[in-house]
Amino acid sequence: MELAPEQCRAARGLLDWTQEHLAVRAGVSRSTIRDFERHRHVLHRGTESLLIRTLQEAGVMLLPPGEHGPGVRIR
């Protein structure tokens, strides 16, 4: 699964997490998350996997792109 910048922002919103909080939980830099969410760069596969795992472990379901694009949902 690929994580879209919009999904990352929406997932953080559902969890009420800041970029800093996600960065600490995932073990990445805040600037990585900031730049990704602003479409400044694409994530490395390993970093993307860390973010996906962290969000899923926190209870977020990442929905694949469908008719209306990718989405997020709380379990």
UniProtKB/TrEMBL annotation:
SUPFAM superfamilies: lambda repressor-like DNA-binding domains. This is HTH cro/C1-type domain-containing protein. InterPro entries: Cro/C1-type_HTH, Lambda_DNA-bd_dom_sf. One of its GO terms (molecular function) is DNA binding. Pfam families: HTH_3. Residues 9-38 form the HTH cro/C1-type domain. It comes from Starkeya nomas. PROSITE patterns: HTH_CROC1 (PS50943). It comes from the Bacteria. CDD domains: HTH_XRE.
